[in-house]
Amino acid sequence: MTSTQQPSVPKRLRAAADPALLVATVGALLCGGLAWLLDAKAVADGFWIAGTVVSILPATWWVIDALRRGRVGVDLIAVLSLAGTLLVHEYVAGALIGVMLATGRALDSAAERRATKDLHSLLDNVPHTARRRIANDVQTVPIDEVGVGDAIVVGPGEVVPVDGWITSPIAVLDESVLTGEAMQVRRRTGQDVRSGVVNAGSAFELSARATAADSTYAGVVQLAREAAAESAPVVRLADRIAAWFLPFVLIVSTLSWLISDSVVRAVAVLVVATPCPLLLAAPIAIVSGMSRASRIGVLIRHGGALENLGHATTLVLDKTGTLTTGRPTGGDIVAAPGTDPTELLRLAASADRLSPHVLAEAIVREATGRGLALSMPTDVDEAAGTGVASTVDGRRITVGSLDVGPDAPAWARAVLARAAFDGAVIAWVTIDSALAGAILLVDPLRRDASRTLRRLRSAGLTRVVMLTGDRHEPAEAVGAILGLDAVYAEQTPADKVAGVRTERESAVTIMVGDGVNDAPALAAATVGVAMGARGSTASSEAADIVLTADRLDRLADAMEIARRSRRIAVQSAAVGMGLSLVAMGFAAFGLLPPAAGALLQEGIDVAVILNALRALRVGSAQRVTLTESTADMLRRFDGEHDLMREDLSLLRQTAQLITTGHLDQARASLRLVDTFLTDTLLPHERAEDTELYPALAGPLGSSEATATMSRMHAEIGRVSGRLRTHLEQADARGHVSEDQSDDLLACLYGLYALLRLHFLQEEENYFTLASDDEPTERKQPDDVRNSPNCVAAEENTP
């Protein structure tokens, strides 16, 4: 029954005043009713008059407060109706209006508290102290005293106070406050941990990499405060409508008085005229949608962003960190002749062990993921833009960029060509000044990118554009894979802003980015969305929406929530306003007396408020629900994919040996391929057919959802059998014969492409259903053979 715009009084005062007003008005109404039943009419009127006066005093203050801020709200109608009931001696109607006014106020407060519960929970979890360890002494200090590099101890159940790197062997974390994911995650030594997450396991230590003010949680808390304080355009629209609705109500009320010569009719019109559905229910639906989005890791800074998100048609994205993971991963390892690829990786990772560079971290992560034991480097010398030089196990190792020149060996020239095709970065490795190999690093697509873009298009997006500072070749490759409508590469920050403005001229535009260079473009878009989990502070501050989970699919979820909330807001406003207008007509013709009108308006208010609160619930488009055992199975097969992906290069390298005429070595390499296929790949495929796919039939609706994958398994088995036959023929001859070459090459390259595609399809369609924010950690099972992951490149390998 009131505007959602809060009066300029302390929140604590309002929190106490609203229930007190409700108790007073309800008490006055009930006491008056009891007195009336006892035939004490004068006492009854006294109670009802008191209830009316108790209501009219705060309502008058709300009107004055609104006028002082330049607003003419519909609270004025409430004051006039209350005063009118006293004037025409309709005291019971005045008491009912007072109860209606207090009830609407209390419902308003309760709805806001419920709708913003998830946002305020961020504030409740703010840590104020931290336990800092110095030598063997642990001291509790104010969080503002924590500095970069301090050793912090986090006990069981405690909130991580600052961003840092884990120094303990393992930490079990509950990241649901930031990500919306209820599942616990494990982090190991050297991995990032963000402030605000909860320690769900035993105590662990971290090394602070930021102060409390610069940590993740501080930024999220600030966004939460802003989100809770903002009001939606629907609210401002309500105020504009009030500007014409108020004169309309006064005209209808006056005409009914003049025509009928009855002040009672005029008062009845005022009683049913307050448009609570517009001023109360619609904002509640918007705030409820914001709360619902926060639960899944989407922090919306104001209601206007939610409304705009609900009818956007164009999406502009950055590439790195948005469509791709933003984390380089080790691709192929190419070693010079006579160099062991596994040892090459171990030495390179050992040399990079102390480097903070993102490429160095990727190399170390690749080596530790393969279970390699790293050595501690000494005499470390790191030059910006060049790389790292370290002494490892008595040998001088360099890792980084290098101008190999036109006289480079054939294998090195092949690396350069392949990197150009794949959009990879090359980390050259030298051992005691001799070029020993190269590690190709790529930034892979997010597994959920294709699925998310399909969902976004189904949610109403008609155009998807990528703006990236990357080169044309990798940018075009990403655009082709994802089916983007336009791709613009080598874009500067100014170019991105211009591109976003161009798109915004023709449609409501969403911009998604994560880097500092994306911040101006985010600010220029209709709705700026920052990948806040790993993005820069600048991009998060410039954005209207922050994805606190490092998952692009959360944007699709948020669009569905936005559309549903907006639909509920408009529905609540339209239906409620329509009912109020109909009631005004009945009142104007004398068919609805003030007391009955007050009861009717109360019912309308409650109905539209309850309808608006539906925005808190999940809509009809539900996420696929998995049992815990099925989710565990998905993660198990996902981990096996990571292990097998390391061996896929065997297929390509065996084909290269055949192409260059090294048929004796090709036979040995073909045996490694057969061992990989027989002992690892085919058992994995059979287990998927017999265990995983039947378990997915229920959640996905039918077994048809996995039928094409089963058919691909059959083709993989057929080609694997053909390669086994070739190996048997080569063993009989003692070498691979030339008449086998063509078919062998077709089988090897075909199976390589088939497995790459098959892995990607399964990961996108199935494994993302149970994906964590972090990639599944690769663990080398005890029973996995110790076969080499790479084959040393020959001098003339292309």
Task: Characterise the protein shown here.
A seven-stranded mixed β-sheet has the order 10-22-21-20-11-18-19, sandwiched between helices. With 798 residues, it is α+β, with helices and mostly antiparallel strands. It is elongated, with a radius of gyration of 34 Å. It contains 26 helices and 22 strands. Helix 3 runs antiparallel to helix 9 (263-271) and helix 24 runs antiparallel to helix 25. The protein folds into five domains: 11-118 and 227-291 and 563-616, no CATH class; 128-211, Distorted Sandwich (Calcium-transporting ATPase, cytoplasmic transduction domain A); 298-325 and 445-548, 3-Layer(aba) Sandwich (Rossmann fold); 329-442, Calcium-transporting ATPase, cytoplasmic domain N; 628-770.
Q: Judging from the principal axes of the Cα atoms, what is the shape?
A: elongated
What is the helix tally?
26
How much strand? 5-15%
Unreliably modeled segments = 1-10, 227-237, 535-539, 772-798
Count of beta strands: 22
Number of domains: 5
Task: Return the structural class.
Answer: alpha+beta
CA gyration radius, whole angstroms: 34 Å
The biggest sheet amounts to: 7 strands, mixed
Helix content: 55-70%
The rounded distance between the terminal residues' Cα atoms is 77 Å
Order of strands across the main sheet: 10-22-21-20-11-18-19
Q: How much is the average pLDDT?
A: 77
Domain P-type ATPase A: 126-224
Pfam families: E1-E2_ATPase, Hemerythrin, Hydrolase
Domain Hemerythrin-like: 633-770
Keywords: ATP-binding, Cell membrane, Membrane, Metal-binding, Nucleotide-binding, Transmembrane, Transmembrane helix
